[in-house]
Every structure is written in structure tokens, then in C-alpha cells.
Amino acid sequence: MSDQNSSHNQSPLTLDTLRILETMNDAFMFVDTHWRITYLNKRAASIVHRTREELSGKILWDVFPEAIGSRFATNYFEAANTQKPVQFVELYPPLNNWVEVHVDPSPQGLAIYFLDVTQRMKAEEILHNSEERFRSIWEQATDAMTLSDPEGIVLLANPAYYALYGYSPEEVIGKSFAVIFPQELRTWAIAEYSNTFHNPSIAPMVEASIRRKDGTERVVESRYHFLSQDGQRTAMVSTVRDITEQKKEQEALQRLQTRSQRLMESNIIGVMIADTSSILEANDAFLEMIGMTQDDLHQRTIRWADITPPEYAPLDQSKLEELREHGSCVPYEKEYIRPDGNRIPILIGATLLQEEPLQWVCFVLDITERKQLEQRKDEFISIASHELRTPLTTLKALIQIGKRKVERQGIQDAISSFSKMETQINKLIKLVADLLDVSKIQAGKLDYATE
Fold first, then answer.
1. Through-space distance between the first and last CA atoms of the chain, rounded to whole angstroms
2. What are the counts of helices (DSSP H) followed by strands (DSSP E) for the chain?
3. Residue of 123, 72, 116, 67 lying closest to 94 (CA atoms)
4. Most buried among 124, 138, 187, 344, using CB within 10 Å?
5. Cα separation of 13 and 126, whole Å?
6. Measuring CA to CA, which residue among 1, 52, 44 is closest to residue 26?
């Protein structure tokens, strides 16, 4: 306290002034014309993390040598030399604090007021960064964006907006948003805007067709957000997304789905969608082939292993690899096992739907009738071949007997005729044998003689 009183005695400040300075929130320091600190209040000592004993009566540059050559020193000297107040904000490096400084010069010295504004500066930096981020988002957004007032006057628009509608900033900013509409629709557009702006029940999203400045048309999805003050809407932020290509893709997909659904429901051919282990979807034609129903498909998993005979597993695996590599596989024949144990021959082909997870669509044809027809044909060929062999063998034997008789009698013309007959009979026998081999090949019963 005695130190405080002595500093008071050295200061040109009055006692009442000192009392005020002790209670104020701002830090205060008085420096005389010799740069000696004659007074500092509690707040000043707190900010610089020094005691009054360390600073009172000391030369400013001796106790704060880091200030020499800094902006602090420059501004202090300027105030002392010009006798004009100086105000500035500067970072104080030793404490890493920002301080706002007011310097009031007088013939007796400098009255220095300073305030720790570190939190304010951080907040301003955060705000500045937020503004920069907002500006970056606004400028780089792929969606068209505008800010407009209650009357529909465009206050701000981003580059994507100009690119979408084909107008320049000069044609848009400060003008009614309705400028982007054909002349005959502008009155309607302004009325719709007013209704959207003032009616809280209006849906915040609408899909519509627009006409660009060059006359081309696009399909867009518009969303509205409002800025409010005291419960009243003051501005509208519109976000417009060009969904023309998306709509085309959706329409194409819808047409494809419609065609696929018709194919599934037609039951002309078996159709099913599957993955590596089971059947996911199937039409009635396919389920009828394997002896099941839609209820069976929905109530339990139909696995490939359960309906495929074991001997077809290697073939299925090779076709699966072909499907992975080429996106489709050449149709091939196999069989399915029905719940009653009977087998049904089918012709199956597949096309890849997606790679991860692997799924494909199969087209399946019941070839039971064709197989039965082939079997009847093979049986006919086999029977006919056997029936032909007997008379041909008999004929060959009779020709050989006749040939030997005329050879003994030396009738050369008859010998030549019998030889020709024997040659033709041998050809017939070979043809019949070939027919039998073909029948065996198709039936899978050909015997091989290794030589």
C-alpha cells in the first residue's frame, strides 16, 4: 500500500482520478516524459503478469525490452512527438495476447489505456474464416443459388446460377428474378414467388421445367430457405439443381423396369435373378419348371445346390467364371431336380446385373419336349438301323454265294456284276453302321476303341 501511495505521489493524477482508475475494467498506465512508469492500475498489472513493485518507477524500455522496435514503441513515440492520440490493436508476443491500446499524450507524459481483446480477435478470426468458407461454398457450389428480397429482387447469385440460366450478373443482380422466365410467364412467376415467400404452408421444394436464355429447356429441382428477423421473413435463399439428366435416367430406368416386369410376368420363358448361392427372384414359368411356387420362394431360400444334380457342378462353375469375365455366358444345357425327384432338362443363359455383390439374370427354357423328340428320333434310327442290317446281311451273303458260282463257271460279265453289287451292299452296311454310331453319340453311349 505504501508503494501504491508513493507511486500516487509521483503521478500527476489526482486522488479521485486514481480511485476511478483502480475500479475501471481497462488497464491503465502512465508514463512520464522520461519513459518512467509512474502509475499502473490493478488491471494493467494483471494483464502483463507483473507486480506493481516490479514496474512502478521503472523505465518502460527496461522492464519491457521486447517492445523496443515494435509497433508499441512506434506508436508511443508518435503520440509523444505529435501530442496527438493514437489507437491501435497489436499482438503482445511474450504473452501471445492481443491488446487494444489508446494513447493520450500530455505535456507530463502518456496516459496508456489497454484492453485484452484476445477472445474478441479469436472470435473475429473464426467469423472471418466462416465468411471465407461460406464465400467458397457459395462460389464453388455446383447447384445454382440466389438470395432475393420479399419483392423478388435478386441481391446475390453464384456462378452456377449464371451458367444454368445463361444470363450475366448485369442482367440478374438488382432485377426481378422473373427475368429468367419467358415474357408471357413473368406476371405469373412474380405472383407465385409472393405466394411462396409469404405462405409458410408452401412446400419448400418444387420440380419444374425452365427455359434458358438460349431457348433450351432443362428440368430443375428448386428448394427454398428463408432468412428471418423478429419472426418476419426478410429474404429467400433459392437452391436450384439441374436434374435433367437424372430425370432422363429415371425415365429410362422406369421403361427398363416396365419391360423387365412384363418379361417376368409374361411366363413365355423362365426368368430369375440369382446370386452365387441362391435364387432371389423368379417368375412363375421358372418356378413351375422346378416344381415350386412364389410362396415357396418367399418362405424359404432356394439354393442352387438343392436343385442342381452334382454332376453339373463343374459346368456351372465354369459358366460362372465366364459370366464374371465377359458379363454373360453362352447358353448351355443342364438339368434341375424337382421336389419329387424327377429331373427336368433345361437350356440356360445368363447376363451380369452387378459385380459386387455378384448378381445375374438367367433366362431358362424347358427343353423336355425337345429331348423327348431327340430320344424318339434316336430310338427310331437305332431300330431302323438294326432292321436294315438283317436284310442287308442276307443280301450280302446271297451275293457272295452267287459270285462264287459264276466264278466257277467262268462267266466274266456275271462276276463283274456280282462284284459291283457287293460293293454297293458294303456301302449300305457302312451307312447303317454310321447311323448307329450317330445314335450312340447323341445318347452318350458310344464305345471307344483305343489304338
1. 127
2. 17, 16
3. 67
4. 344
5. 40
6. 44
CA 194 to chain centre: 36
What is d(CA 229, CA 219) in angstroms, rounded to the nearest whole number? Answer: 33
- Cβ neighbors of 157 (< 8 A, separation 6 or more) are 144, 145, 146, 147, 169, 172, 173
How many other C-beta atoms are found inside a 10 Å radius of the C-beta of residue 229?
8
Find out whether 233 and 150 touch, Cβ atoms under 8 Å.
yes
Strands 302-303 and 270-275: unpaired
pTM value > 0.85? no
- Integer-rounded Cα Rg, in Å, for the chain is 51
According to DSSP, the residues that pair with 97 across neighbouring strands are 92
Q: Which residue has the cell 424327377?
A: 342
| DSSP code of residue 38 | E
* Whole-Å CA distances, 314 to 165, 310, 324: 60, 8, 16
Reply yes or no on whether the pLDDT at 31 is more than 90.
yes
143 close to 239: Cβ distance less than 8 angstroms? yes
**Separation CA 260–CA 255 (nearest Å):** 8
User: Cis peptide leading into 357, omega within 30 of 0?
Assistant: yes
How many residues are listed for the chain in this entry?
Answer: 451
**Three cell numbers at 97?**
495476447
Q: In terms of DSSP bridges, do strands 270-275 and 205-211 run parallel, antiparallel, or are they unpaired? A: unpaired
